[in-house]
Amino acid sequence: MDSSSKILACDVGLKRIGLAHIVQGIILPLEPIIRRNRNQAAKELAELVAQMGVKRLVVGLPSGGLGGDTSTQKRIKHFVGLLGFGGEIVYVDEDFTSAHALESLSHAKRESKRAYKKNGMLDSLSACEILRRYLK
For the purposes of burial, counting CB atoms within 10 Å of the CB of 78, is it exposed (0-12), middle (13-18) or buried (19 or more)? Predict the structure, then answer.
């Protein structure tokens, strides 16, 4: 496992947590965590982080928009705090990552796009975009 594989990117949402990592220079989506409640989701993510030996957690954080709404930022930071992660945490602007992820599925049929949204793979594709932004 090279050092870049010790990076995990997260797109934290209320229903799903999209995940991505990098292997030999290639950004790959991981199976998302379906969120039943924040403690269950934090436990699953903490277990994955430990299992993978993650050293750096890259977390998408919305800018707050024109109104400067920081409630989502606070919710995401609180969730990340539940992990008890001892490594480095880096927050990356996640604005429009879902739109980029959906655009990457432009070739897919409407039913497939709907399935990607429901099963969380769209969230993991968003996490890929978050990781791509971090690496730039």
Answer: exposed
Q: Which helix (H) or strand (E) holds 78?
A: helix 71-82
The whole-angstrom separation of Cα 108 and Cα 127 is 19
Q: Which structure tokens are listed for 57?
A: 């957690």
Q: Which amino acid is at 89?
A: I
DSSP string, 104-118: TTTTS-HHHHHHHHH
Look up residue 124 and give its two tokens: 């993991």
10-residue mean pLDDT profile of the chain (136 residues): values are 74 94 94 95 97 96 73 93 96 80 62 59 91 94
